[in-house]
Amino acid sequence: MKRVDDFRLRLGKHELVPIMVGGMGVDISTAELSLEAARLGGIGHISDAMVPTVSDRRFNTKYVRNKLAQYKFNVANSDKSVVQFDLALLAEATAMHVGRTMEAKRGPGLVFINCMEKLTMNGPKETLRVRLRAALDAGIDGITLAAGLHLGSFALIEDHPRFHDAKLGIIVSSLRALQIFLKKNSRTGRLPDYVVVEGPLAGGHLGFGMDWAEYDLATIVAEIRNWLIAEKLDIPLIPAGGIFTGSDAVGFLEMGASAVQVATRFTVTRECGLPEDVQQEYFKASEDQIEVNQISPTGYPMRMLKNSPAIGSGIRPNCEAYGYLLDASGNCQYIEAYNREVAAHPEARKVKVFDKTCLCTHMRNFDCWTCGQYTYRLKDTTRQNEDGSYQLLSAEHVFRDYQFSTDGKISLPE
Ligand SMILES: Cc1cc2nc3c(=O)[nH]c(=O)nc-3n(C[C@H](O)[C@H](O)[C@H](O)COP(=O)(O)O)c2cc1C
After folding, report:
1. Which one of 117, 168, 386, 404 is at 20 to 30 Å from 323 when CA atoms are compared?
2. H helices of 107-242, where?
């Protein structure tokens, strides 16, 4: 029986262990986690979600405090159009986050950045251009453009000196999304170097509607693979979503995938950015505690634990400090939902908002416990301590388990 280690992912001159640890914002896939994947010969991701905030925590900068001070006058105003990101500071924060990570990289693997294009940041095109270019300037090995694809994103960097040297990939959940992207970007004369095909069991936001359960990753991968063959397009396919064991991964590699992208199993590693008490919630979760809901103001369904503190929280929108989901005209669906509840309960000191959440604040505080569908199986990947808590794993342990395991087995830590 084959193991993942019997396969290799070829990306240009690189020959890699075909395991890619997916991006998990906000700083859930930390630099440390991505560096472990690279050290072990695979690909790791940092995330470019809310980088100024991440930088404040990582390097003790004061981007958030200063932005709040600048826009404090607007806090009570529901029109957030004045709350603009300073592009030079955004570039500086990105350069620092990426640059320091790349300086620390060891080993034969690569570190990519997951760029969530749905972070429209009150200026979608300008801010995205700065984020992409700053990451390239700071030496990132590759960029994965995540769901919510801006169809013209390659054009934003086509004049960058590293446009052809850096690896550029996209995440899609359907053949149609891939076809539209390729058509829109054909003018740049550059194909993606890889395509992550994310199925309905993934963590984070989903590229499906609330009918996600009707879709199946293997079917979508086969459809895209057959179309690429018919079009004579040689682009590595990387399935993601619910690939829980090395044997699951081998199944996809044998059907023609070039690698797999995995995330959930790494949420309970020491290198992951989630606080340990939250990691214990992930371990403890049962299947019926995992739901796909519509509380993300992005409009995309999102999978999370039902006991996430973000659900129902009615905090005042924090756009002056954050504001990553403000659209081009300074709106966010949470602001509307919050204002509606405040108007309906004028006497209340605190309101509850159930239909949307302030995602910036709650992701920043690790209070939105987004997770893959198989989170309920994490307890089977470790040992339980005498006090009932679960033993955290090392990223190396999980990576090597994917790389070498057979027969659907999962090795437990020593
Ligand atoms: C906690 C968590 C956070 C995630 N955040 C992001 C994200 O910020 N951007 C993104 O493109 N995908 C995100 N994902 C999706 C993963 O990168 C990956 O494609 C997917 O979860 C793989 O499926 P698995 O978790 O079943 O292994 C996230 C997944 C998890 C579990």
Report:
1. 168
2. 124-137, 175-185, 217-230
Residue 130 phi/psi, 5-degree rounding, is: -65, -45
pLDDT tens-digit readout, 260-312: 999 999 999 999 999 999 999 999 999 999 999 999 999 999 999 999 999 99
Q: What is the CATH number of the domain that holds 156?
A: 3.20.20.70
Residue nearest to atom 6 of ligand 1 (CA): 24
In a domain, 193, yes or no: yes
Regarding the beta carbon of 201 and ligand 1, being less than 6 Å apart is answered yes
Q: Is the CB of 207 under 6 A from ligand 1?
A: no
User: Does pTM surpass 0.85?
Assistant: yes
What residues make up the domain containing 93?
4-79+87-274+390-404
Number of structural domains (the chain) is 1
Q: Per residue in 12-27, pLDDT tens?
A: 999 999 999 999 999 9
What distance in Å separates the CA atoms of residue 237 and residue 239, rounded to the nearest whole number?
Answer: 6
Ligand 1: which of 24, 221, 281, 304 to mutate, judged by most atoms within 8 Å of the beta carbon?
24
Nearest atom in ligand 1 to the alpha carbon of residue 242 is 26
Q: First CA to last CA across the chain, in angstroms?
A: 25
370 within a domain of the structure (yes/no): no
